[in-house]
Specification:
Blueprint lengths: L1 H14 L7 H31 L6 H48 L7 H25 L15 H4 L3 E2 L2 H7 L15 H6 L7 H19 L6 E2 L23 H5 L20 E14 L12 E15 L4 E15 L8 E19 L2 E11 L4 E2 L6 E3 L5 E15 L3 E16 L18 E18 L2 E11 L4 E12 L4 E12 L11 E14 L1
Parallel strand pairs: 1-2
Antiparallel strand pairs: 3-4, 3-16, 4-5, 5-6, 6-7, 7-10, 8-9, 10-11, 11-12, 12-13, 13-14, 14-15, 15-16
Helix pairs in contact: 1-2, 1-3, 2-3, 6-8
Length: about 525
């Protein structure tokens, strides 16, 4: 048993030897182990023979028991030897494999990977990840993809499979073919033009798409259900569904390829944005009517002239603040043959200044502080008398209000402003002692009248057609006891830039002045004229 233990210990030691042992050492170990096994077997046989010799001295009744014990012990010993031999063979096999792997690892040379190959593998991996992500997004019907601008150049790919004639024509065409000149190595035109941007983007995209469609027609003809001829009768998209392409830079600015060097601070010019916008309009209109003294129906010959001037200066920072200023002047004269004291009368006389300061509240609504002042230039008299009806600063009217302003602007078509002042102050004034103040909302014996109330004012400029423009102004002022309302309308029909016809219709309602005869509180003035017009 002692030798058996030594054998097992020897097996464990041999199994734990270094994997770097040489082949000759391995063979000597195997030879030593075979010698030990042979000696162990011979000792076992000798021990069995000795036990058989000693049997004669053992009593007869104990002989069988002793024989059985010797036999079982020998069997156990042989079984242990077989197990040790099998474990030893496995250890030797494992040792051979380990030595072989060590030898191969020693001879192996790690190849060097080129950086471009690594970058290409990384690109392929990123492409696979992006492709898997977009495929998942494509299958998600509830996902709303935003931030992807639409491009009309790819319309053929977004529509159902349709047969177009352009791909076939392109494949059969030789347009753009040029012969190869062997002695010309460089394109001199590219050097002359420099690095210009490619302005044929849409054309190139269409050619690429046609190539893909032609491949689709050849490989999947059964999936093409529509023909280009069926699309010719389709109506285009309505205006509200069209998206305008952003304006591109001018080609002339792109041609300059000269690089700008270092610029000194003194040579640098910084242009600040100009938020002011100035505009003006002026006109001179005439009308004439001649009737002879013996005209069978009678009548009077008249002549009239009307002139006007409008100038505006508006500030808009396109963020929060708007400041609008406007000055208007209208002056018209008409001959009065029936008036023996005055050859001409002023039938239209107005000087008006308006100003609005607005701060953006939300959307197109602005908190607004507004002011308006209006008066007239010339004096006006009653027919065949020297009774003065109105004069310069008689009357004069001032309105100051605080409220909100709503704006709707569509460039070149419509410009609407609705001003609502829940708090409004109105000052009526008459400076000439010969003018009756009761005709202008002023109490008798006073020259000024202050009124607190509210005011609504709406201005509209609408280009109905290219040559017809409607300008309107409506105001409603009340102190909750009396009302002053005005509605001014000007229709301008322009024949060209300098000639136009104007129709003025001015209505007024004022229940704060006494009535004249049987007339009500509604007043009306109308004038149709033809003449010169200039806008800048």
């Amino acid at each position: 048993m002692k030798k058996v233990g030594i054998l097992i210990l020897l097996l464990f030691v041999l199994s734990g030897k270094s994997l770097k042992a040489e082949t000759t050492a391995r063979d000597s170990v195997i030879t030593d182990m075979e010698t030990v096994i042979n000696e162990l077997l011979s000792d076992t046989l000798d021990m069995t023979a000795v036990k058989k010799d000693t049997v004669a001295y053992v009593p007869q009744d104990s002989m069988s028991v002793f024989r059985d014990s010797i036999s079982s012990e020998a069997d156990s010993l042989l079984l242990e030897i077989d197990r040790a031999a099998m474990h030893f063979e496995d250890s030797i096999k494992h040792l051979k494999d380990s030595l072989m792997k060590a030898e191969l690892a020693k001879r192996r040379v790690t190849p060097k990977v080129h950086p471009e190959v690594t970058a290409f593998r990384r690109l392929i991996q990123q492409y696979r990840e992006d492709y898997a992500e977009w495929e998942e997004r494509w299958d998600d019907i509830y996902l709303q993809v935003t931030g992807l601008p639409s491009d009309a150049d790819f319309y053929k790919l977004s529509m159902p499979a349709t047969y177009y004639s352009a791909p076939v024509e392109q494949s059969m065409s030789i347009e753009g073919w040029q012969p190869v000149i062997p002695f010309v190595k460089e394109d001199f035109r590219k050097e002359a033009l420099g690095d210009l941007p490619d302005l044929r983007r849409s054309e190139k995209i269409d050619r690429y798409i046609n190539r893909q469609l032609l491949n689709f027609y050849v490989n999947y003809p059964n999936l093409v259900k529509k023909n280009e001829a069926s699309l010719r009768d389709k109506e285009p998209l309505p205006d509200e569904l069209r998206s305008q392409r952003q304006k591109k830079e001018k080609v002339r600015s792109m041609v300059h390829t000269k690089k700008i060097g270092k610029v000194d601070e003194q040579s640098l010019l910084v242009v600040k944005p100009n938020f002011w916008k100035f505009a003006g309009d002026s006109y001179l209109q005439f009308s004439q009517n001649y009737i002879s003294d013996n005209w069978y129906k009678g009548g009077e010959s008249t002549k009239s002239m009307l002139t006007g001037f409008t100038w505006s200066a508006n500030y808009d920072d396109r963020r929060r603040v708007q400041f609008e200023n406007k000055i208007e002047w209208k002056l018209g004269f008409v001959t009065a043959p029936s008036d023996t004291l005055h050859s001409y009368k002023a039938n239209n006389d107005l000087l008006r200044l308006t100003s609005k300061l607005g701060v953006k509240a939300f959307g197109t609504w602005y908190y607004t502080l507004s002011a308006e002042f209006k008066t007239q230039f010339f004096s006006n008299y009653e027919t065949n008398t020297d009774n003065l009806v109105s004069a310069f600063f008689s009357p004069a009217e001032l309105n100051v209000g605080l409220g909100m302003d709503y704006k709707f602007v569509k460039d070149g078509v419509c410009n609407l402003s609705v001003l609502m002042n829940p708090i409004n102050y109105t000052l009526y004034s008459v400076s000439n002692d010969r003018v009756d103040p009761t005709k202008f909302n002023i109490k008798e014996g006073h020259k000024r009248e202050s009124v607190w109330g509210s005011r609504v004012e709406a201005t509209l400029s609408w280009t109905i057609i290219k040559s017809l423009t409607w300008e309107s102004r409506f105001s409603y002022t009340t102190n909750y006891e009396k009302v002053v309302g005005e509605w001014e309308n000007t229709f301008t029909f322009a024949f060209n830039r300098f000639l136009s016809t104007k129709l003025f219709v001015h209505g007024r309602f004022d229940d704060g002045v006494p009535r004249v005869d049987d007339h009500g509180y509604l007043q009306l003035q109308e004038l149709l004229s033809f003449g010169l017009n200039y806008t800048w």
